[in-house]
Write a structure and sequence with these properties.
Layout: E1 5-6, E2 15-21, E3 24-29, E4 34-38, E5 45-49, E6 54-59, E7 65-69, E8 72-77, E9 82-87, E10 96-103, E11 109-115, E12 123-128, E13 134-141, E14 144-149, E15 155-160, E16 165-172, E17 175-184, E18 192-198, E19 204-209, E20 213-217, E21 224-229, E22 235-241, E23 247-252, E24 266-268
Antiparallel strand pairs: 1-24, 2-3, 3-4, 4-5, 6-7, 7-8, 8-9, 10-11, 11-12, 12-13, 14-15, 15-16, 16-17, 18-19, 19-20, 20-21, 22-23, 23-24
């Protein structure tokens, strides 16, 4: 049994999207409308408050951060806390907001939306283009969630949560093809596949919302390789961090009833496998 420890006492209403960057762990509090950053050793915590829910935030090559919220994509200047609107591809869908996102090995931002009213097929995974247009990459999804790439950049992993499937695509220069279902998680666990990350061996770590665990899947066969259990039911996402990328960080949301969860950030230190370095968005 691996030891799971709380990083700090800070509580996020709904923690998501952890990122290891610049020797800190960054994540978003979706319902708390904030980007959060903590230094795990010093416990120094800083927050940037937003005027709307924030589904993800990712660093750019010029030192700013791009985040997605209720009303589109924005660029955040950390020093001032000011956000500049970039694009809103779904102004006609008031029940949608941006959710999870990732940066491809070639520096392109892929960000997806969620249909909060659960309208099936109303959401989309987009690619942010150099002119700040949004190109649909995977349309007709409902809750665009976990996304990651193989170490060589040739495979894209993707989760549309309500399907309970983890899929994989061939990836090349911003384009995808050859959809395959890597694993149907429904027979494995009665929970929803949420955020994810990929390790240096190319295997996929998936957090299961309502499931209180993170599961490692073989990138070729979909076989379950390892399961890390938490007492917190609302496990939402994960990433590798720490000086040698051997610490697995796990975000949670505040739960209730039989889904009791406290919204803290957790870590499993000293994993046998390392993670992959975080990429930054190149097109800004």
């Amino acid at each position: 049994m691996r030891k799971v420890e709380a990083v700090s006492d800070h509580v996020s209403q709904w923690g998501e999207g952890p990122v290891w960057w610049d020797d800190h762990l960054w994540w978003v509090d979706i319902e708390g409308k904030a980007l959060c950053r903590i230094h795990p050793e010093t416990q120094n915590l800083k927050m940037w408050k937003m005027d709307q829910r924030i589904g993800f935030a990712l660093p750019t090559i010029k030192g700013t951060w791009i985040w997605g919220g209720d009303h589109g994509l924005y660029e955040l200047e950390l020093s001032t806390g000011e956000s500049t609107p970039l694009v809103n591809p779904e102004p006609n869908l008031p029940h949608n907001r941006f959710n999870d996102a990732g940066v491809s090995p070639d520096g392109q931002l892929f960000a997806g939306t969620i249909a909060l009213d659960k309208t099936e097929g109303a959401a989309t995974l987009y690619r942010l283009d150099p002119d700040f247009g949004c190109t649909p990459v995977i349309p007709n999804v409902t809750n665009s969630n976990g996304i990651g790439w193989s170490p060589d950049g040739g495979i894209l992993f993707y989760i549309d949560t309500p399907t309970r499937e983890i899929t994989r695509y061939t990836y090349e220069e911003g384009e995808i093809s050859g959809r395959q279902v890597l694993v149907n998680t429904d027979p494995i666990i009665d929970a929803s596949p949420d955020g994810c990350c990929v390790d240096a061996d190319g295997h996929l770590w998936v957090a299961f919302c309502h499931g209180g665990c993170v599961i490692r899947f073989d990138h070729e066969t979909g076989k379950e390789l390892e399961r890390i259990k938490l007492s917190e039911k609302e496990t939402t996402s994960c990433c590798f961090g720490g000086p040698d990328l051997r610490d697995l960080y796990i975000t949670t949301g505040v739960g209730s009833g039989d889904k009791q969860s406290d919204g803290r950030l957790y870590v499993v230190k000293g994993m046998a496998i390392t993670g992959l370095p975080q990429k930054c968005v190149a097109q800004t």
